[in-house]
Design brief:
- By secondary structure, this protein is an all-alpha fold.
- The protein has one domain (17-61).
- The chain contains 2 helices and no strands.
- The chain has helices spanning 7-12, 29-38.
- Mean pLDDT is 88; it is low at 1-5.
Length: 61
Amino acid sequence: MESQSDPSDSERSPFRCDGRTYCSQMNSCAEAKYFLAHCPNVKMDGDHDGIPCERQWCPGG
């Protein structure tokens, strides 16, 4: 089942859910945060603190 996002959401963001799920597939902290907040089945917050990709993209939150 594919997730439908609000069209106004995609107009405001340069990012879109495209099936990527891992930090190694991201290009920035902002992109990782978008994916964590908007995309299903991502694997970017191993400690479940709401901050994705802390080792690679978002050190210190």
